[in-house]
Amino acid sequence: MSQENKPLTTLVVGATGATGRRLVEQLLNRGHHVKAVVRSAEKLPDAIRNHENLTVIQAAILDLSDAEIAQHVKGCDAVASCLGHNLSIKGLFGKPRRLVTDATRRLCAAIKANSAPTTKFVLMNTAGNSNRDLHEPISFAQKCVVGLLRHLLPPHADNEQAADYLRTKIGQNDAAIAWVIVRPDNLLDEDSVSDYQLYASPTRSAIFDAGSTSRINVGHFMADLITNDDVWNEWKGQMPVIYNTASQAS
């Protein structure tokens, strides 16, 4: 049976973030079950927080023990991370500096601890992070800027390290985990899903010619990966870049 036709259970971390809420909403609208790990349940809209298919786990993901994370992951068909750092001084330079990486590592360990069938792991990342499996061409100027960001802004290095963990430590042939890393560019807010395009590698410079991607489109694509086998099989083990169609035409 196609996963698109049966209810699934997905654990979502970063569920109260601007994109995480969109993913949770998309999954619930498709009739699936969601376990949402949130620091504050009050940040979820009422329509989501009171949904019968939602289970709220009120905690910071890195404050949970390994056993607790394994228990929350148990029975899930997929795990999705929409974690990110707040655009504030504390969010950019405070702790935890490796939020995305450490959460990815510990969630993967929890999946393996449960010895379950292959679990999907979908990680929201950024178009500013290259897929080094493909040796994506980057201009010298962009390499210089990214090098500075890597040293000056901890969140950029965190995103790189989280993606590299999946690429190199989990790899393409892990029996317990299969993954997709979603790379949006220049996130913006829109009220409804619009046309978007997917590419194996960036078609524009994330530094000097950034496109745009609405958060609701990111949530829609991540939900498609989780619920639609055809979409999953097309992108499994890759780092697709997602742009709003309008931004590609500009």
Task: Specify the number of helices.
Answer: 10
Per the principal axes of the C-alpha atoms, what is the gross shape? globular
Roughly how much helix do the residues carry, as a percent range? Answer: 25-40%
The tally of domains stands at: 1
The computed structural class is alpha/beta
Short description:
This protein has 250 residues and is α/β, with parallel strands linked by helices.
Describe this structure in words.
With 250 residues, this protein is an alpha/beta fold. It has a single domain, classed as Rossmann fold, CATH 3.40.50.720. The protein is built from 10 helices and 10 strands. Helix 3 crosses helix 5 and helix 5 (99-113) packs parallel to helix 7 (154-170). The mean pLDDT is 89.
Descriptive terms for the model:
Rossmann fold, 10 helices, 18% strand, alpha/beta, two-stranded parallel sheet, single chain, eight-stranded mixed beta sheet, 250 residues
Chain-wise SSE layout:
Blueprint: E1 9-13, H1 20-29, E2 33-38, H2 46-49, E3 54-58, H3 66-73, E4 78-81, H4 89-93, H5 99-113, E5 119-124, H6 140-152, H7 154-170, E6 177-184, E7 187-188, E8 196-199, E9 213-214, H8 215-227, H9 229-235, E10 241-244, H10 245-249
Parallel strand pairs: 1-2, 1-4, 2-3, 4-5, 5-6, 6-10, 7-9
Antiparallel strand pairs: 8-10
Helix pairs in contact: 1-8, 3-5, 5-7, 6-7, 8-9
